[in-house]
Write a structure and sequence with these properties.
This protein is α+β, with helices and mostly antiparallel strands and 106 residues long. It contains four helices and four strands; from the N terminus they run E-H-H-E-E-H-E-H. A four-stranded antiparallel beta sheet has the order 2-3-1-4. The protein is elongated and about 60 Å long. The termini are far apart. It holds the Pfam family GYD.
């Protein structure tokens, strides 16, 4: 199942919601969204600095991740980034594939 790193920053409105609902309330909301699309939350951490929250989630396909991303961004409560994560085996497989590439100017 494809795995994604999600990094998010709360907007002022999203922060107000977090303060009202608490971290456990947000975890329950995230679990609900992810599991309803056939996924699983592997890890969820709150942070401070550039990101307010960091998650690792599994989804059955990239389209499910895109659907969540679009919906969350449309809410205006968070600014998010989703990064696909690849296993060591997937990178080994990619390294074995032949790619017909020509560098610019060669």
């Amino acid at each position: 199942m494809p795995k994604f790193l999600i990094q998010a920053t709360y907007t002022p409105e999203g922060t107000k919601g977090l303060l009202k609902e608490g971290a456990s309330g947000r975890r329950a909301a995230v679990d609900h969204v992810v599991t309803n699309l056939g996924g699983q939350v592997e890890a969820m951490y709150f942070a401070f600095g550039e990101d307010d929250i960091v998650l690792i989630v599994d989804f059955p396909d990239p389209v499910s991740m895109a659907a969540v991303s679009l919906t969350v961004k449309a809410s205006g409560a968070l600014h998010t980034r989703a990064t696909p994560l690849l296993t060591l085996d997937e990178i080994d497989e990619a390294a074995r594939r032949q790619v017909a590439f020509r560098s610019p100017g060669t």
